[in-house]
Amino acid sequence: CDPTSRYRSFDGSCNNLRHPTFGVAGSTFRRILAPKYENGDGRTPRLTGVTGAKLPSPRLVSVAVHDPGNHTAVNVNLMVMQWAQFLDHDVTRTPTTVASAPCCTAELVRSGVLHPDVTTGGPCFPIIVGSNDRLFTDLTTRCRDFTRSDPAVDDNGIRQQYNAITPWIDGSQIYGHTEELARSLRTLVNGKLRVVTINGEDFLPADEAATDETCFKLQPGDYCFKAGDVRVNAYPGLSALHTMFLRYHNKICDRLKAIHGDWSDEILYQEARRLVIAVIQRISYDEFMVQILGQAASKYGLLFGNYSYNSSIDPALSNVFSTAAYRFGHSLVSDSLTINGQVVETGDLFMRPKFVLNSLKNLTEALLTENCQRADRWYTKGMTDRMFEKPGGPKTGQDIVALNIQRGRDHGLPPYNEWLAYFGLPIKTFDTMEQGAIRYRGVYSSVDDIDLYSGAIGEFPVNGGSVGGLYSLILGDQFRDLKFGDRFWFENLGDVSSFTSDQVKQIARIKFSKVICDTVTGADGIKKVQLNAFRPVSSTNVLTDCAAFPDLDIERFWV
């Protein structure tokens, strides 16, 4: 490691000079509780409950417990859901194994036996659907493909899983987590990132290697986006945020170049990257986190003005954070978006770049003006029946609740009550489940079998927040570590990589609303945004002229 380096590495290494591998891409997820596999080493995922009975099909749990419902949140808009996904793709990606043949066959459904991979550590762990399902009713759809996460065997021979990217909040979804990927996204001129310009507006560059597995091109001129994270095309709102920060980076480059004409491409790129990361950190912790954790955000020291770097902190994500707790955002997704006056169902939005290319302003306004769903046990059908459904291909969609439950069993996450006990919270009986008591009793043999993801999402929210008590503890602990264990955190003063205290104050002025104003531009651009972009317009959160938001005094930033 070079202790004099002003800039982060792309792979997360050397952030911690005492422990250079802390936070490096490819790190094994940290365990809070020991895994609970069917066998000791994890070759076989969690399959049975405390009585020895088979656990219910994840799809059955989804349909019986997490039925469709329109439970709109009161005080938070869809931008909260969208930032949650954008931030998720900065800190975690769990790679999966590749099966040599399809995991699902009609014979597998007909026979009712386990796929042989399930007990031998192979890739296939398909989800079997009951014959009375509301949608998947025939032999060709009653088995849903699912492959296990890539294994990382620990020193005791127990199957673990790993994070393919860095856990740091370092803009890796924009810039990439390897030098090679980062370089492929650059123009190598004036520090800028590559763009495709259409009608005078800059968009993300094209990914020539994209397939129908990641992006649907439905009209002439459509193309699949390329960014620092491969999931950029998953949802139009996500692609919109990527587009905003691509433009924001290039705008900062222009402003720096105008003042520091002698700076090289490399310096301009790194200084703009450094500022963009700082702005993302500030928005994530000082604006977004309060919407999720409420008053607990302050308790964990997540708000601006509370910083002291701690080199003893290992920022590795916990398995439970990545596999369950931070997937709470899937419950926030609404069943539709209104774009250009047209109501578009969520199932018709996935992996379609046309909504960004045609309607960035209208898409952004929808995220700002439409409220998200509450984080609760109810999910929209767009998420449980039609996620990533292929155009013209009914019954090809996925069920995010079933996938999340199956992923938890794949990783050996202990059931819900064991997590409550660990954190000192009251354990549940069927009668004390906060939502859906009768429904849980109808599918699980014992309350002690309830899968963590299913149980915790149904808790009533903490004061001022969106998630329940258990998830707030898991999220608070993790986001605290990601802040105070980061030597490059924008508030950390006195290091060779640090901003000055004056520069930190400049960064603290920037609201997400200002970023939106600066990047959704043009003749038909956004002219007004509410003060807090994560809450709906109200008498206390009024629409504000873009010119009124404070900006960076770029002259205060130098090398």
UniProtKB/TrEMBL annotation:
Residue numbers binding heme b: 330
Main location per the UniProt record: secreted
Keyword Metal-binding appears in the UniProt entry: yes
Entry's Gene Ontology cellular component terms: extracellular region
GO molecular function: heme binding; metal ion binding; peroxidase activity
Keywords for the protein's UniProt record, in alphabetical order: Glycoprotein, Heme, Iron, Metal-binding, Secreted, Signal
Name of the protein in its database record: Peroxidase
